[in-house]
UniProtKB/TrEMBL annotation:
Residues 349-371 are annotated as: Disordered. It comes from the Bacteria. InterPro entries: AKR_Detox_Biosynth (IPR050523), NAD(P)_OxRdtase_dom_sf (IPR036812), NADP_OxRdtase_dom (IPR023210). Keywords: Oxidoreductase. SUPFAM superfamilies: NAD(P)-linked oxidoreductase. Residues 17-342 form the NADP-dependent oxidoreductase domain. It comes from Micavibrio aeruginosavorus. The keyword Zinc does not apply. This is Aldo/keto reductase.
């Protein structure tokens, strides 16, 4: 396993980050512990979770993933060996703090204490904002024409960002967090936080995790440029596009126990163009004799702006395959064939092709805080 510097934090993290969102729904506590046990034997020192997990999010599964990680820490007494990230939920879910869960001082203070208790730890290495309070270009709203930014109350939003940074500063001084990071945010969001951090001597955002994969490359080049030039770690999540790049959902298939069999928030992904792209990427992998899931994960890993790629698995076989992807070498021929597919079909899932569907799906995804 190779390691990279986590932005301006200076922390060394494994190129593979263990995602955890299925633990507590598709995975039991014993299975979660088995995954963590195996991950550390492979050199992984970087775990990502969130208060809203497990997914699909619900009141019944809220906080379950953090709780399972906490029991693992209690059992192994190895908290200092892991770089742990968690996230505070943004607006949407009505079962979190009675629906009054805008990211602000009151909610940050409540959320961090809840996460620390469930995780059975005194601190979180990187505390992230799961999604912004403002309308933002993610969760099916990446495409041109889906958001009218002229309607934004920028002054009020900037005041909120300052309050957030000030509160994160309080947590840092109290020793509850080491660093802060973003998730599902934009180039503007990153830069505005960085500007305020410098102006007011407040904690600096050291990382951002956004969806990035063969099917979704919206962050390259704009967010990617900001991250490289400003020393903010870029952490791709969903390298398999919610499992779609495995090819297992083609022709309407929903294998028992799979993500799409239990999580139906995928209308912007399950399109003709998307399925065509999946078939093409599967064909590229077959042509070169490599596993398509490993090819997709390694594609994220080889991006010059990527620091660590967040993987997730529901079975040990999947986990072993995913982690082994980081040892894969993608030849120039493979990369050229990937490029050809991309040129033919650069935006394979695009909710903006149907504005009504896009709006409905974005609201659903925001409430569910899918990752």
């Amino acid at each position: 396993m190779e390691y990279s510097k986590l932005g301006s934090s200076g922390i060394q993290v494994s190129r593979c980050c263990l995602g955890t969102m299925t633990w507590g729904n598709q995975n039991s506590e014993a299975e979660a512990h088995e995954q963590m046990d195996y991950a550390i034997t492979q050199g992984i020192n970087f775990f990502d979770t969130a208060e809203v997990y497990a997914v699909p999010p619900s009141a019944a599964t809220y906080g379950k993933t953090e709780t399972m990680i906490g029991t693992w820490f209690a059992k192994h007494k190895n908290r200092d060996k892991i770089i742990l990230m968690s996230k505070i939920a943004g607006p949407g879910p009505d079962w979190i703090r009675e629906g009054k869960n805008k990211i602000d001082r009151t909610n940050i203070l409540a959320a961090i204490d809840g996460s620390l208790k469930r995780l059975q730890t005194d601190y979180i290495d990187v505390y992230q904002l799961h999604w912004p309070n403002r309308e933002f270009p993610h969760f099916g709203k990446n495409s041109a024409g889906t958001i009218d930014f002229t309607k934004a109350d920028t002054k009020a939003e900037e005041e909120n960002l300052l309050e957030v940074l000030q509160t994160l500063g309080e947590l840092q001084k109290a020793g509850k967090i080491r660093h802060a990071g973003l998730s599902n945010d934009s180039a503007w969001g990153i830069m505005k936080y960085l500007q305020m951090s410098e102006k007011y001597s407040l904690p600096r955002m050291v990382s951002i995790q956004n969806e990035f994969n063969l099917m979704n490359r919206y962050d390259d080049p704009h967010v990617a440029e900001v991250c490289v030039r400003e020393d903010v770690a870029y952490l791709p999540w969903s390298p398999l596009a919610g499992g779609q790049l495995s090819g297992k959902y083609l022709n309407g298939a929903r294998p028992a126990g799979s993500r799409w069999a239990v999580d139906h928030r995928v209308p912007h992904r399950d399109t003709e163009m998307a399925n065509e792209a999946v078939r093409d990427y599967v064909d590229v992998a077959k042509k070169h004799g490599i596993d398509v899931c490993q090819m997709a994960i390694k594609f994220c890993d080889v991006q010059s702006f990527a620091t660590s790629t967040i993987i997730g698995a529901t079975t040990m076989d999947q986990l072993k395959t995913d982690i082994a992807a980081f040892d894969l070498k993608l030849s120039q021929d493979v990369l050229d064939d990937i490029k050809e597919v991309y040129y033919r079909n650069p935006v394979p899932f695009n909710g903006a092709t149907d504005p009504k569907r896009n709006t409905q799906n974005s609201q659903m995804m925001r409430v569910a805080a899918s990752r």
